[in-house]
Amino acid sequence: MPGEFERFVQQLIGGIKVPQIRRFGADLVTAMGDRPAAAMEESPLVPDDYIVGPGDEVLITLWGSVDAELRLPVDRAGRISIPRVGTVQVAGLRADELQDVVHRRVAQVFRNFQSSVSMGALRGIRIFVTGFVVRPGTYTVSSLSSVVAALMRAGGPSAAGSFRNVELRRGAQVVAQFDLYDLLLKGDRSADRTVRSGDVVHVGAVGTQVGFIGSVNKQAIFELKTGETVSDALRMAGGFTAVADRSRLAIERLKERSAGRVAELQLPRDATTSMADGDVLRAFSAVDAALPSQQQSKRVKVEGEVVHPAEYVLPAGSSLSDAIRAAGGYTPAAFLYAAELTRESVQRTQQENYDRALRDLETDIARASGTQRVATAEEASAQTARATATDRLVERLRALRPSGRIVLQIPPDAAELPDLALEDGDRIHIPPRPTTVGVFGSVFNGATYLHLPGRSVGDYLRLAGGPTKGADEGSIFVVRANGNVISGRQDRGWFGRTGNVSELPSEPGDTVFVPEEMDKTTFLQAAKDWTQIIFNFGLGMAGIVSATR
């Protein structure tokens, strides 16, 4: 379970929505604690310095003048009994001494034979795990178990237990002190001694705890020994990440809560600063905070009708004209009126506004459908059909993504782009001069037609056969090559139409769109609705006349 200091550091970096900050070494305890006890304790190989004792099993194989395969337990007196040979005292011997002792004893009875002696099943021993561990108590472990295996059997150090002060006690003597950080940071298990029967593995209280968060390779709670400094904590955290600001750290000291609390350390000058219990170090990212726009170099892509289309890096303060000069200028076919400038910051803003508008639309639709009442099965069926169509429309709208294009307000015959400041990531596309005008939508022959000077938008509508019977002629709109949109509804006022899109002069690259009228009512539907209204009105009047009599 996380301790109080762990919960405090977790709050500093943003609570439960960010990766959990744990004590360094807790992952090892968790991983080994999930394994079976036998997998943690037993090794497939018996070390040469293993001491044979009662309860062990000795495997003996003889061949030559005598053939035998024997599995002999070591009795309480420390002996094994070999048939036709007798007893052999083996308790207290090292594992690498068994071969010679057994062979000499068998040679007293037989000649011309060979032998192989090894250890079989090993005895279990009882040890004690005490101190600040999750489950202190007595444990029966394999005689090959080490301090780490015994510690993991007890659940590892508790929130108040130390990872750096683990003692192996044998009687009144401390035979080994083990620092788990040597294993975690260096892979060094030289101090991880094998336990013996009656040994005590004791975990002391946790020492000085400090937190390290931010742009380091391992965010965690670290335990420091006396004399360890900021540089030691940084080493335990695996050093800075690739994008970290390596020149400084912030330190938050609990003991200075009433006097500033947070201070800044300059590296490497303050790397030897000592730390106190409860301190929290924070490393900063060098890329999270963007530089001011006027100090940034500009990475710009110039494409289309320029002499050298490519991606360029321009100095701070560069403009559109600087980018064009870097690309060698325009080609004779360049059509500046239709130039496209797309910008990443504009795309993000457009996406945010679009998502907000889409959420508002969904809310309005849900509110309208929830409050609408139906009186007949026909109305219910119509409402269901409208809801289905609305859902399909919302899904299509959700799939759309804004382009981030900035509409450049320049005349069709412009020879230069406006002197607009560039931003990093801008894309400039200069298309060739178009020679066509497109007409689409509810027309008889939607197609692309050759542009001729002097023709109006209405001329191209007539070439396409004109609007169909179901067209919404009052909503015809034209998309200019520069991105501007001119609609018939822009010319409407309180007293009706004051202009006509069809009378506009056409320009190269225009796209004329005639939308379909969506809310159409047939003559029979209109007659039915008016009949129902007049019928209800007549019933109401009859009721009023009857009541006045």
Description:
- With 549 residues, the protein is an alpha+beta fold.
- The chain is built from twelve helices and 27 strands.
- A hairpin with a 5-residue loop joins β21 and β22.
- The chain is elongated, with a radius of gyration of 43 Å.
What labels describe this entry?
single chain, 549 residues, alpha+beta, Outer membrane lipoprotein wza fold like, wza like fold, 5-stranded mixed β-sheet, 27 strands, elongated
**Radius of gyration, Cα only, in angstroms?**
43 Å
Number of strands: 27
Q: By CATH's scheme, which homologous superfamily of the domain at 35-42 and 124-205 applies?
A: Outer membrane lipoprotein wza domain like
Quickly give the CATH architecture of the domain at 35-42 and 124-205.
Roll
Beta-strand fraction estimate: 25-35%
Give me the number of helical elements. Answer: 12
* Mean pLDDT level: 85
Structural class: alpha+beta
Largest sheet: 5 strands, mixed
**What ranges have pLDDT less than 50 throughout 5 or more consecutive residues?**
493-498
Separation of termini? 86 Å
CATH class of the domain at 35-42 and 124-205 reads Alpha Beta
**Helix amount, in percent?**
25-40%
Task: Give the oligomeric state of the chains in this entry, treating copies of one chain as homo and distinct chains as hetero.
Answer: single chain
What's the helix and strand layout?
Layout: H1 4-12, H2 26-33, H3 37-41, E1 57-64, E2 68-73, E3 79-82, E4 86-89, H4 98-107, E5 113-119, E6 124-131, E7 137-142, H5 147-153, E8 161-170, E9 173-178, H6 180-186, E10 200-205, E11 208-214, E12 220-224, H7 230-236, E13 244-252, E14 262-266, E15 280-285, E16 298-304, E17 310-314, H8 320-326, E18 340-342, H9 344-371, H10 377-399, E19 405-406, E20 427-430, E21 436-441, E22 447-450, H11 457-463, E23 477-479, E24 485-487, E25 492-493, E26 496-497, E27 511-514, H12 523-548
Parallel strand pairs: 6-10, 11-15, 16-20, 21-27
Antiparallel strand pairs: 1-2, 1-5, 3-4, 6-7, 8-9, 8-10, 11-12, 13-14, 13-15, 16-17, 18-19, 18-20, 21-22, 23-24, 23-27, 25-26
Helix pairs in contact: 9-10
